[in-house]
Design brief:
12% strand, disordered N terminus, six-stranded mixed β-sheet, two-stranded antiparallel sheet
């Protein structure tokens, strides 16, 4: 099972963005891709055809009670290995985490609570999204007069990651990591740097559209994540919107409209609504046109009953002469 522990840290620079929540949602939506990217050694063993179940349970209440001032939510996803066995994957998302000893101790606490409840082997991994710190702790050690314990867990840290390699990756989480690295490296910067954030966001959106235009699930999840994690001021938001590629045909519009997740996002929500309004407008116009055509045909029928010639009916109704002729034949039959 996968447990995602969410921490909302007041110390993080952007006050209106729930970074942990965005990561949690992305992991749940693209769980298979998450495991492929962050846990490549375990990934081949999981039977993804059986899916992943995310039941809501209060697993880590002891953490909520013991750490005043922090908010946590837990989420479990039940997965099955190809050999039929059930296993647990424990994922901790730590915003601005350096991974020091107290963090390692908490990782151990999460581990033994899960193990005590389920008695299954557990794969643990911590995502350290603070790209500015090189040092981290991946082991919890306890020793007291012959009683010893060593708990080692997996860590994926954003520090030092090859950005060009991430750009070339086919896994959607590579773009998510790039966004996370940018947010971490630019925390605390002033508004004069908003133009740079705008340019980076624009670049990331273009990459997502280019890579995943044929993968609606990837594209929807990524655009939602990028749009919220890299928010820009209103004037740049307008500029970003105007730079979006315009849908060239109804097929593209219909595909975009299928991404309901984007309806309330800062950038794509507006595009979503405008396409929707345009579709409604076209529908009304088609309805009016159809109504007028029906009225003309009804008028033409009355004229036919009164033995008007085809030419006279065409002139009076505006219908094409061939249409009047076809209408006459259909009535005669």
């Amino acid at each position: 099972m996968i447990t995602t522990v969410k921490e909302n840290t007041d110390s993080y620079d952007a006050k209106d963005t729930d970074y942990d929540g965005l990561w949690k949602n992305l992991i749940e939506e693209l769980f298979q891709e998450f495991m492929e990217f962050f846990a490549p050694e375990l990934y081949p063993e999981i039977d993804f055809e059986k899916g992943a179940d995310f039941p809501n349970i209060e697993l880590l209440q002891f953490v909520i009670n013991s750490r005043k001032g922090r908010k946590y939510s837990d989420r479990l996803a039940k997965v099955t290995l190809k050999n039929g066995e059930e296993k647990y994957v424990f994922v901790h998302i730590e915003v601005q985490a350096i991974g020091e000893q107290d963090f390692a101790e908490r990782m151990f606490k999460y581990f033994y609570r899960i193990y005590d409840k389920y008695k299954h082997p557990i794969y643990s991994i911590a995502l350290l999204t603070d790209a500015s710190h090189q040092h981290y702790e991946d082991t919890f050690r306890y020793s007291f007069y012959g009683t010893e314990l060593t708990y080692l867990y997996n860590v994926y840290r954003f520090y030092g990651k090859d950005k060009e390699k991430l750009k070339k990756s086919d896994n959607p989480f590579a773009l998510a990591v790039l966004a996370g690295i940018y947010v971490s490296e630019n925390a605390g910067r002033t508004k004069k740097d908003d133009e740079e954030k705008f340019q980076f966001k624009q670049q990331l959106i273009s990459m997502a559209l280019e890579k995943y235009s044929h993968r609606d699930t990837y594209l929807s999840a990524l655009l939602y994540f990028i749009d919220y994690i890299l928010q820009v001021p209103a004037e740049l938001q307008e500029k970003l919107y105007e730079s979006l590629p315009i849908a060239e045909n109804e097929k593209e519009e219909g595909k975009f409209m299928g991404m309901e997740k984007l309806r309330d996002t800062p950038t794509f929500g507006r595009l979503f609504r405008e396409i929707e309004e345009e579709a409604t407008k076209k529908g009304l116009e088609k309805g009016m046109e159809k109504g007028m055509e029906e009225a003309e045909r009804n008028f033409a029928k009355k004229l036919l009953d009164r033995n008007y010639s085809d030419e006279e009916i065409s002139e009076l109704t505006g219908l094409e002469l061939k249409d009047v002729s076809e209408l006459r034949k259909s009535l005669e039959n």
